[in-house]
Amino acid sequence: MSATTPLISDDALDIDTFLKTSRFAALPPAFYTYLQPTPLPSPYLVGLSVAQAEALHISPMQFDRSDVIGLLTGSLVPATASPLASVYSGHQFGVWAGQLGDGRAILLGDAIDKNQQRLEVQLKGAGPTPYSRSGDGRAILRSSIREFLCSEAMHALGIPTSRALCVTGSDHYVFREAPETTAVVTRLAPSFIRFGSFEHWYYNRRHEDLKTLADFVIEHYYPECNDTDNPYQQLLAAISLRTAELMAQWQSVGFMHGVMNTDNMSILGLTIDYGPFGFMEAFDENHICNHTDQQGRYSYRNQPSVGNWNLHALGQALLPLIGSVEDTQAALANYAKSFTTKWAELIRKKFGFITPHETDKALTDDFFTLLQNNHADFTLSFRALSAVDNHSTTNDNALLDLFIDREALKAWLERYRERLNLESSDASDRHARMRATNPKYILRNYLAQNAIEKAQNKDFSEIAKLLAILEKPFDEQPEHEAYAALPPDWAKHLEVSCSS
Ligand code: AMP
Ligand code: MG
User: Fold this and answer.
1) How confident is the prediction for the chain on average, in pLDDT?
2) Which of 187, 241, 367, 428 has the smallest set of CB atoms within 10 Å of its CB?
3) Domain residues of the chain, as ranges?
4) Which residues of the chain have pLDDT under 50?
């Protein structure tokens, strides 16, 4: 080992000081219920984000300790923790669903990371809460591995998201469509407050509590709103901007959330509550990743407008604080513009253009039409586009091979090259820029499925391997070429649903 290799600190994790009382617990008692997690029986480590552990000053070696695993599976609750489940409501599939709440997620407390960022530490799947309704409070191994991997993959793609520290599993069974073993994801975010947290107080006509929540959110997450005449209006406008930008980022990598109910929408514009999500493979703008969503409310194409619908639901809830319908509408009015601005910026990068040009929209729209008509793989197409030459057709084949109508693509590529040559774009510089924005490795369903099947047989090596690959989605990683491959035939029939 060279003298400059950074050493991982193996200082013992002090379980008694790791967690601080959650800031969320400063809200009045009506906002949550204190409770103890229900320990996962005989737990073991399934997956670990070393990056996230180190960010929390925990050496990966510490995860061999039974007390650390106990902390992360609910059997050891330190005195400094204040486990609680919070209440919220929401619109599910466009219909008011009334009270929901943390039915299986328990907030243990807050941790401070290396950047002095305060993060809520939640155990998802740690047993029933007063908000479990008919649920068992558990999460199955399959969906927990998916949430764990995707949280970290999205972070590596540069998309705002809750993070995941680890997955712990158990041989304890619960019933879904079939018996499945259970797991806990330890997940982290500055806040898990949702649009539905506000809707809860609005629909219960408790405007004092609504104000308390808005003041709490402004104080801790949007303090700049206090510098304006109407801080609540500014709060809504700020959440609208973050949501619009998040939607543009999802669309730009082909991420589909699957259940964009208002209770799954973060007030910080983070991707949260991973369930039946998917990444676009064979491009189809109408693709529905959630088998339960038969109408396609949350299809790829619909995500940006659903983001707007959800913001209107939030606006309705904030109306008593903002004061007037006009001011509420004004706060929401910029959504389409914010989305389009961010989308245009991301698209420009995806196509490798340096400065905007008036023909860009038509040209890039036409590429999406080609993707749609050919059902070409979204990720591989942009990656292959990153490699075509500025002046010659020499490197076109990898891209052409993804399309059925090669002639149509060739014609488009001529226009593309004309466009590239409008600016003095050096090919190797453009390739590098495009590779840094068009990922090679995404969490394809079949990759997750392979890791899950091995884990169900107690082989967790594939989870670690896949995570390591997904942590560097833009790198070539030639030794892992197979992980960038098109899905095998069996994977075309993989279905994911709300049941998790
Ligand atoms: P989701 O769409 O998965 O975010 O969940 C919607 C609501 O159902 C939330 O209130 C969850 O806490 C609750 N929920 C989902 N699965 C379970 C479960 N197994 N046990 C208890 N509550 C659950
Ligand atoms: Mg949820």
Assistant:
1) 95
2) 428
3) 7-191, 196-345, 353-435
4) 1-9
